[in-house]
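User: I'm preparing a small set of examples for a lab meeting where we compare how different chains pack in three dimensions. I only have the primary sequence for this one, and I'd like the structure in token form so I can line it up with the others. Please keep the answer compact; I'll paste it straight into my notes.
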Amino acid sequence: MFSQNIIKELTNIVGRDNILTKREDLICYSYDATNQKFLPDVVVFPRGAEEISLILKMANFEDFPVIPRGAGSGFSGGSLPVEGGVVVSLERMNRILNIDTENLTAVVEPGVVTGEFQAEVESLGLFYPPDPSSLKFCTIGGNVAECAGGPRAVKYGVTKDYVLGLEVVLPTGETINTGAQTLKGVVGYDLTKLFVGSEGTLGIVTKIILKLLPLPATTKTMLAAFPDMKNAARAASSIISSKIIPSTMEFIDKNCVKCVEDYLNIGLPIDTDAILLIETDGDKDLAEKEADAMRKICLDNSAIEVKTAKDKREVKELWKARRAISPSLKKLNPDKINEDIVVPRNKIPDAIAGIQKIAEKYNLTIANFGHAGDGNIHVNVMIDKSNKDELSNAQKAVEEIFKLTLNLGGTISGEHGIGISKMPYIGMELSPAAIDVMKRVKQVFDPKGILNPGKIFPKGRE
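Assistant: Understood. Below is the structure token output for the 462-residue chain.
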């Protein structure tokens, strides 16, 4: 338990209305999308960098952990208070500070909801491409911490490709600015890229400078159904090799298709092994030309059906189906272990076939969907965690899936980060020397190990 002196001092910093200490309130900040739970000692809601700086200086003096938190939508446990301490919730820091329509940049606070920011810039004819599936509630700050991606990554890249600069409070309490509001800048080390994807272990981001693009004039959306996952993967590879870069190219396996159709009843083709959800955007004539070419490629690769959305309602229905996959999988089993491996695009069929063999070996149901355009597969091992044997088999299966991924030239995480969920496996991909360098970087920024301890590296607070 925290001493009353510490709680009093924290109250003085953020104000009486911006601190939680009662257990029933703390529970709301004890979990994320992993559904693992670790109760914090205190939750505070600062208004800006100055208050966060005071909190971190106090933490260094009193030696307690500080855990930054956005919306708590992460899948790797990155915002969980695994050692207790103070959760710094950034939800009050939710202002869009500036949108520069001449220079195509924006400045936002970390608590801005991604989808709301996208809607705001699109109303001005601008475009912010990163689109994680949780965009309706996840925050820009959380996206920066995890370097979030999404379906549009195949054409437009991920969060790090749009962050020009940051205001960051370091674990020791100093506030620094990195990068610039210009597209070019090579003054000193690129600290901006170091903070993006650091999972809240190197500093707390308090302002973000983002690059924007012009809003594409037209978008064409289509759904292609295939009798075999290999056909779908070949079609995806053929589209890219034909020099067409779709704005999105999602694949959904038969388990996911059936669950979503049962969940939404919108007429998805369930007698298929896989479907591709494909979009192209840009100039109207070019978008239509690319859509026609992709349709032909899908048919040439044995697509049973290729359907082009006729209007915004049909587009909305198709994307509603894609974003409903995760909740719909509850039909298969109440719990899931959700991984996000990445393999080279042409290795997707090998990965899916290997995952199926692992599922059969351990008598598990595994549903797969993800981003065919960049080889990012969301592997959902569906289990009942109350069944200890099933849970044990699932954990063994996950390790084998990671080995398969690395053997195919892939990586064990494309979007979700390491956090605590993948911490035991980081040594499968990174060498001891690489991990040691990262630990030394952490030590430089956070000599007392107070910021988001127990994440990424297996030995915790070092």
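A couple of notes for your slides: Residues 332-417 form a domain with the Alpha-Beta Plaits fold (CATH 3.30.70.2740). The chain has four domains: 4-91, 96-214, 218-326, 332-417.

User: Perfect, thanks.
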